[in-house]
């Protein structure tokens, strides 16, 4: 059974004076900016660790359908890639070395190096260069 929320007619405690409200907003924005930076740094560290541990890693946004496409292409070749989902591209930007080529998500790392996004993966596959790259990385034994 549902319980009714009591109604108070006197005063509105949720309303604050403008100065107090502005100060509260600034504190919340500062705290959220710090936590966002810390989250991005933690996500970048996780991606770096996953790149170092996996011969083939697919990094993509949460809920992105293109991760499935990349994964199915690699599984069709006999490779079982690790998949790491991130909230945004900021984590990937911190993993790619300075001056290195950035890749759109989903990004594919083979042998600890960035191969590229889906378009680059497809181009390498069509040209016939993908299987030797996977063999060299130790992801494919045939």
Automatic annotation (TrEMBL):
InterPro entries: GlrX-like_pln_2 (IPR011905), Glutaredoxin (IPR002109). Pfam families: Glutaredoxin. Keywords: Redox-active center. Residues 56-114 form the Glutaredoxin domain. It comes from the Eukaryota. PANTHER family: GLUTAREDOXIN. This is Glutaredoxin domain-containing protein. It comes from Zizania palustris.
